Structure formats: C-alpha cells, structure tokens
C-alpha cells in the first residue's frame, strides 16, 4: 500500500474507534448481558458481540476481499495468512469491563500475506490510541512515537499475566523478582499501551492471536523485540506465551528462561 492508501486506512479505522468509544461508554451505563464461555472466569457480554459485529460489518464494507479473525466468531474461519487478514479483539479485558468499567481496550490489526500492515489499540475509556505500522510510523494519538530507550529488566516495570505468575509457569515469578517492579493489568491491550509508550520495559502473557496481533505489529514497528517465551517461531494463528520487550529486557528475560 502506498502512503495515501495507508493514511486513508488509518483515518477510516480511527473513525470506527470513535464510534466504538462512544457506543461502548454509553453501553456501560445500561444493563449488560454477561455470559460465560470456557469457564466461569471466561466472560463475554453483549457489548463484546455487538462491537465485533460492528467491526466485521465495517471491514466487509471497506475491504470486502479480506478475511477476518475475530474472537467472538463473527468473522471467518481463517486457516492461513494468505491475502489480507484482519484480527479483531472487540473488548480486550472483558473481566475489567464487567467489574470495573475501566482498564479495557479494543484492538485491530491488519496483515497482508503474513506481513504486518497496520494496527490500532485503544484504551476505550480514555480514548487513548496507539496506531500505525512499519511503513507508516507509529503514533500515540497524533504524536509520532520514537523507538524507546533500551532499558533493561532491572531498571523497569515488567507487565505479566496474572495466571502465569500465580501458577509459577515459564519462570514468571523469577522474571518478576528480577525486574524493578511488576504489574498485572488484566488486559493485553492496556498492557501493550504501557509498553509502547515507554512506561514498562516489557509484557509477557499467554495469548490468542487477536490478543497479540496488534501489539506484536506495533511493538516490532517501534523496535521492540517480540517472540515466544519458549523460543518457538511465531505463528500468527496459534496461541502461545508471547513476550514483547525492549531489546535489553528481552535478553534479560530469555537469560532467566534458559537458567530455569
Ligand atoms: C484477555 C485479557 C487478559 C489476558 C487473557 C486474554 P479478553 O482478553 O487480555 O489480560 O490475560 O489471556 O484472553 O478475553 O478479555 O479479550
Ligand atoms: Ca474473551
Ligand atoms: Ca483479548
Ligand atoms: Ca476480547
């Protein structure tokens, strides 16, 4: 895509995010339907579903040939990365959304033939957006973001998944102890925003493709290192424990992994 096409794409999706911001904030004041999926802690609401349906309709109008991989199943069954593939996480941090009405995000990412094109992450309550891509640059709202300072684990905050930490998997407790401090936010999108804007040196969590597609694209575009904590190659269509971090924090964490 050329610069003008990328600009049009960005403006279009930013328009969708405005709509989602207004609609979702209105919806939290109304009665919500909360259902469970895989277990009693795996929540989904009518707002998750309606928001995904909104994105799917908007993408189909704007980019009819694309495939859509959405968490709530309103998109397509996507088996490969050929062509244009949109990843959609309508409400990321549904537990926070239901219990706190805050600290939740919405995320979209577009890849073409497996190559990153553009992604968007919005802290919905604060209308705070990181968006962009490798050929476009990455912006925090209207401000261009620069590659972050290469801070190591001992000098920064690491954001971790609560479950991996609690159940002492993949050396998460050791990583937390080696960091200056650790945080658990309960939303991949909110966590990525902290990393991308330089407030934390890294984020690691067990995630599904729609949880990590946007953060991976934006992180790599900004010069962060992204990979699987078990050192397996990234495959955008499978779940895994994914780490995004400054180059230094990434090698600090992988050194801990190797010593386990
Ligand atoms: C979840 C959140 C959470 C992460 C889970 C995700 P959801 O997304 O990002 O922080 O630990 O792995 O599934 O289900 O609320 O969109
Ligand atoms: Ca979910
Ligand atoms: Ca999610
Ligand atoms: Ca979600």
From TrEMBL:
Family matches, as SUPFAM superfamilies: Carbohydrate phosphatase (SSF56655)
Keyword Hydrolase appears in the UniProt entry: yes
Top-level lineage group: Bacteria
Enzyme kind, highest EC tier: hydrolase
UniProt GO MF annotations: inositol monophosphate 1-phosphatase activity; metal ion binding
Keyword Nucleotidyltransferase: no
Entry binding sites for Mg(2+): 71, 89, 91-92, 211
Protein name: Fructose 1,6-bisphosphatase
Species of the source: Weissella cibaria
């Amino acid at each position: 895509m050329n610069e003008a096409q990328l600009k049009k794409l960005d403006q279009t999706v930013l328009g969708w995010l405005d709509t989602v911001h207004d609609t979702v904030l209105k919806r939290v004041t109304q009665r919500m339907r909360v259902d469970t999926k895989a277990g009693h802690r795996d929540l989904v609401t009518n707002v998750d579903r309606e928001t995904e349906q909104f994105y799917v309709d908007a993408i189909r109008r704007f980019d009819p040939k694309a495939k859509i991989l959405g968490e709530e199943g309103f998109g397509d069954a996507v088996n490969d990365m050929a062509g244009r593939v949109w990843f959609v996480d309508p409400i990321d941090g549904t537990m926070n959304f239901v219990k706190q009405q805050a600290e939740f995000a919405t995320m979209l990412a577009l890849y073409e033939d497996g190559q990153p094109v553009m992604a968007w992450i919005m802290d919905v309550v604060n209308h705070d957006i990181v968006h962009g891509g490798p050929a476009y640059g990455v912006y925090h709202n209207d401000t261009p973001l620069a590659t972050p300072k290469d801070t190591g684990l001992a000098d920064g905050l690491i954001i971790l998944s609560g479950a991996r930490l609690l159940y002492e998997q993949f050396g998460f407790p050791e990583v937390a102890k080696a960091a200056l401090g650790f945080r658990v936010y309960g939303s991949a999108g909110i966590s990525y925003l902290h990393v991308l804007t330089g407030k934390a040196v890294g984020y690691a969590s067990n995630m599904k493709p729609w949880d990590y597609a946007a953060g991976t694209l934006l992180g790599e575009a900004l010069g962060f290192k992204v990979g699987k904590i078990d050192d397996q190659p990234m495959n955008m269509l499978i779940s895994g424990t994914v780490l995004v971090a400054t180059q230094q924090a990434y090698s600090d964490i992988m050194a801990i992994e190797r010593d386990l």
